[in-house]
Design goal:
Strand content: 15-25%
Number of helices: 8
Strand order of the largest sheet: 1-2-11-10-9
Structural class: alpha+beta
Shape: elongated
Helix content: 25-40%
Largest sheet: 5 strands, mixed
Radius of gyration: 27 Å
Order of helices and strands: HEEEEEEEEEEEHHHHHEEEEEEEEEHHE
């Protein structure tokens, strides 16, 4: 199970800014219509403003978005169910400012808790009532796909109730649910492909802009070198070598299709690293999001959390722990986003400078998995030990 401490001591939901934006129900309505039509059942979609909705007894399936069957607060003052920060659901990064969820460790409404493949509590079912435990309505265009995934989990868990409500026989009901799951998987695949294609395109555009700037610099450099050769005969040998290397690099950068494919292939290889969950490119920064990182030390295994690695094209580097930081320590070897790279710093800088981001990412992931007590800022025992 996935548990985290409350993100805030303030028990008032409104004080946490949860009413700043209104959930976009219009994006979710087509999903509800699709499932209702396919199953030939009534399905309701509820967005209670106070995050409390009593279980409904009417015939059909009732979805309650980001709320509980019990009041989250006692008398509007004291928290009955604390809130946690949930950065990911079903493998997707949730929208910034909309990463709150109800903590499953408090019993919730005493129904059946449903978990996504990574062990995060995403819903609770009471009879034919489905309570979504995270901010589903504020996920923009991702919300319909997340709702489908929640419904697929919930419908699988309430097959007895569905058999009672539906006009289908058990065999046909199973085939129908399998058909809905396949549709969800197809939409999931299309979305990931579209996101990857968009980020890949943006990555190449950023690289191309960088190449153009460097090409202009090298053209000026070549001219300066030629003038230097004429003026300083004693430096002819050294400066002639600089001229040769600069011209070689300029010729490489002025290529188009061949170099484009090289860097696109480099980006694809980066996405194939098993620990890489997602890659974003923006404003000369490549952000690499990892899956949960585990590290061994003293024959013990520790869960360090999911990281965001920001690689700047100018060589700067920042690594933040998104899920399990220990105060200002993101990792035994990282304080406030600043890693202590030791003897790998020079080689890593060379890889980044040559745009070999796949190799650089692999080096950094190996760095996250490697623990050296002589150099750490804080002991690894401050992170959760995992059973083996």
């Amino acid at each position: 199970s996935f548990f985290q401490p409350p993100i805030c001591d303030n028990p008032c939901l409104e004080d946490l800014g949860m009413q700043v934006s209104t959930p976009d129900q219009s994006l979710l309505a087509p999903v509800v219509r699709d499932y209702a039509s396919t199953l030939q059942l009534d399905i309701t979609l509820n967005f209670p403003s106070n995050h409390f909705s009593k279980p409904r007894q009417e015939r059909g399936i009732h979805i309650h978005v980001f709320c509980l069957p019990i009041r989250p607060n006692w008398f509007g003052l004291f928290p009955r169910v604390p809130l946690i920060k949930m950065p990911f659901a079903f493998g997707y990064r949730l929208a910034e400012g909309a990463q709150l969820a109800f903590a499953p460790g408090s019993g919730l409404g005493r129904g059946k808790i449903l978990y996504d493949p990574e062990g995060r509590a995403v819903a609770e079912i009471l009879g034919t009532n489905v309570y979504v435990l995270f901010e589903l309505g504020r996920q923009g265009n991702l919300a319909p796909l997340l709702l489908r995934k929640v419904l697929d989990l919930a419908l699988q868990a309430m097959t007895e109730d569905l058999a009672r409500l539906s006009s289908y026989n058990p065999e046909r009901l199973g085939v129908t649910l399998d058909h809905l799951r396949r549709d969800t998987e197809a939409q999931d695949h299309r979305r990931k492909a579209e996101v990857q294609a968009e980020v890949r395109k943006k990555y190449w555009e950023e690289c191309k802009g960088r190449f153009q700037d460097e090409a202009l610099f090298l053209e000026r450099e070549i001219k300066a070198v030629e003038e230097t050769i004429e003026e300083y005969s004693l430096l002819i040998t050294a400066e002639a070598q600089r001229l040769k290397e600069s011209r070689k690099r300029l010729k490489f950068l002025q290529g188009t299709q061949e170099e484009s494919e090289i860097y696109k292939k480099e980006f694809d290889c980066l996405l194939e690293i098993p620990e890489v969950r997602e890659v974003l490119v923006q404003n000369w920064v490549v952000s690499i999001f990892t899956d949960t990182i585990f590290a061994e030390h003293g024959k013990r295994l520790y869960k360090l959390g999911s990281f965001r690695i920001n690689v700047h094209f100018n060589g700067q580097l920042a690594i933040k722990n998104l899920t399990d930081p220990y105060g200002f320590y993101d990792h035994p070897h990282i304080w406030d986003g600043k890693p202590c790279l030791g003897n790998i710093r020079v080689g890593l800088a060379k890889l980044i400078g040559e745009f070999q981001l796949m190799a650089a990412a692999q080096v950094l992931i190996d760095f996250l998995k490697t623990i050296n007590p002589k150099d750490w800022y804080t002991p690894i025992e401050n992170w959760q030990e995992m059973p083996q």
